Amino acid sequence: MSRVPGTAHGQAVYQRLLRAVPPAPHGRAWHAADPYLLHHIAAHAAHADAIDDLLLDGEFLVHGHPASILAVLPAAVGRPALLAAAVYRASYGVHHALEPEQRRQILGLDAARLRADDLLPGLVRPSASWAPRWATSGQTSSSLLATLVGHELPLTGVAALVLDGRPTAVTTGRDRTARVWDLSTGQVVSTFTGHAAGVESVAVLPLGGMDGRPAVLTGGADGTVLVWDPATGALLRTLRGHSAAVTAATAATVGGRTVAVTAGYDRTARVWDAADGEPLLTYTRHQDSIEALCVLPLDGRPAAVTGSNDGTVRVWDLATAETLFESVHHHLHAVQAAAVVHRDGRPLVVTVGYDGSASLWDPPAGRLTRLPTGAGQRFTDVAALPALDSVDGGPAALTTGDDGTAAVRGLTTGQTRQLLAGHTAGISAVAVVDLEGRPTAVTASRDGTARIWSLRTDAAVSDRGGHHGRVASVAAFSLGGAPAAVTVSDDHTGRVWDLTTGHCLHTLTGHRDRVTQVAVLDPPGSTPLAVTAGHDATARVWDLTTGTLLRTLHGHTLGVRDAAVLLLGGVPAAVTVGNDGTGRVWDLTTGHCLHTLTGHRDRVTQVAVLDPPGSTPLAVTAGHDATARVWDLTTGTLLRTLHGHSAAVTAVAALTVDGRPTAVTAGNQRVASVWDLTDGTLLRTLHGHSAAVTAVTTLTVNGRPTAVTAGSDRTARVWDLATGEQLHLLHGHSAAVTAVAALTVDGCPTAVTTGSDRTARAWDLATGAPLGTLVLPDDLTCVAVAADGTTVAGMGHEVIALTPPRTQGDPA
């Protein structure tokens, strides 16, 4: 929206509308405002040159009409209002369809993520039972302009065009549709429905429509290619020839006429006359499916560049199908995308692979340059950025990744100059467009949304100390008497957090692959230690006071899945389990492997330890061989095998019941099993869940040994382990409950459950009463509760901390 000075009349109208909003003790009672006001006052505020003040009113952001607010965000001017606009955009694709109090919670969390400290108090009610304390911001960006919501399944492609003078984008999805969007308004212009399977690719044909107008070509998973009128959504023609999914498409000019070029899983690329859909030629030199496609001008001779899943890239003449150049070992694995950039007027081909590699190729000169990229990157698409000035002394490109981010990169150094973060799943495709004179990107994601981004080469790449991959596990502990936590991630690192301030105290680097689990040993009066389990087949021991790597535990031959810690004869020890089907007992002071636990016939994914007073310390391991096994940690001896599960055992917890060591196990069944570890007796089976039990934890509630189970049936349940009685049914989630953590906080036994419904819920385990519900922009991946009641959780790449829940009702 362009900014023009507000007229006296416009200002008068706005003030009159503002006075019609009922007053409240600390502002305006927007919840009681007339619906007309909620729908239209944002536009009046923009016309009156007063939008900044309105955007800084948290209650208005909660109750105002979402689409109306989104439309005026470009009119924000001052830094606080621009930050408020970024907060509103961050999760718009989720909160626009929610009730106001649910929207409040998401806006509050996004204000914490974006450090909108002045806005946050206006979004969190003083009486709120649960609220964000702080959050990282690895999946937010102030460059986000809008989120396009409408597809019902993951998106696969995006292309940009100008339609009747307006910047427009076309997105394709697995929901068998393509949608045309007006990028200035975010509104759908037309929808293409006609594919019998998911739509995998899209291209714009500049002269392929009626009367020389542009047309849009879409390629389907069933091998069909359809050509559409983007203005009306009418199907113009069907192109038949491919025998498998059409994964890439583009347009070119050959001999003065517009042609369409398509490629796919049938290992062929095909050239079509855009005007009538007639096939012109087929290129058949590839030995594997084709994912990458672009057009390269070579001395006036149009050529296609195609990249295959076998890592090869070929350049061929679009008029004759003659192979001009080829690079057989271009990438080690699949070539995902290709684009043409220019350096000193010379066209070069930039390619990216799913293995994280990127290359710059000058085919006529035979020069292939490998570009430096970050660890763990998995590229999905690339686009040239001709509208941007030179970056790092050379051409720039926009790359997208499986981690849900896009990045502006200088192709001379490979350095990231702008990071676009906000998608909650991998990005499938990207297109670049001019939007009101500004270079702009449109990304299509597997999260079902497309997003519009401002591209600014001078935008700082901020590092707020957060993770750059999915947060896999979290453990809470005390550091110098203050609550702290350690998180581990798919980005190969761990991080230590001050839960009060949100400061990242240490980054734990050393693992060479994703880190899957963390356990903390926090003995009184001693240095807290963390043991991290990695997919690199190692576990690592860390001093959490300094962040120092103390030692690396070698021995597993495949990824380590879980770790548990205890004092073994007064010495810090750990038990690790892994995909190699073994467990290992370690002395953490020396790094020596004390025992190897062998017996499982498949991978072992969970372990719990128990040190009953006056008895032998035990470990219980859970395996995909449908058994749990009990081990003497002093000798490494297998004491007994717990048979009874009919599928993989995926959850285990242990505690003492009536003086006897006891374990609770669960898996892909509807029951949890309670075992006496002394003799291996199945004491009882906990019936109640109507679908698989996904997680279990144990604690003592009012002197009674208690278990909390989480299930795919959308419930959690509280059990008395001495009797097997179900004490409480914790009902409220609307999808599978995926994780549970429990701790007694200030005398109140508390559990926190997370679900696939994008909520976290806190419960009083003594009564079963809900303590609070928090609606989130994404699903939580892991959760822990600190001794002071702070909840710390992973959400995608983010770490979030919530204030201790209070008994104030359930706001959701």
Task: Give a description of the structure.
- With 812 residues, the protein is mostly beta strands.
- Among the domains are: 8-128, no CATH class; 139-152 and 380-463, no CATH class; 153-379, YVTN repeat-like/Quinoprotein amine dehydrogenase (Methylamine Dehydrogenase, Chain H, 7 Propeller), CATH 2.130.10; 474-493 and 503-598, 7 Propeller (Methylamine Dehydrogenase, Chain H), CATH 2.130.10.10.
- 9% of the residues lie in helices and 49% in strands.
- It has a 4-stranded antiparallel beta sheet with strand order 3-62-61-60, with helices on one face. Strands 4-31-30-29 form a 4-stranded antiparallel beta sheet. It has a 4-stranded antiparallel beta sheet with strand order 5-6-7-8, with no helix packed on it.
- Mean pLDDT is 93; it is low at 808-812.
Kindly provide the radius of gyration, computed on alpha-carbon positions and rounded to a whole number of angstroms: 29 Å
- Content-based structural category: mainly beta
CATH superfamily of the domain at 153-379: YVTN repeat-like/Quinoprotein amine dehydrogenase
Q: End-to-end span in angstroms?
A: 34 Å
Mean residue pLDDT: 93
Helix content class: under 10%
Query: What is the name of the CATH topology of the domain at 153-379?
Result: Methylamine Dehydrogenase, Chain H
Shape: globular
Q: How many DSSP H or I helices?
A: 9
How many individual β-strands? 62
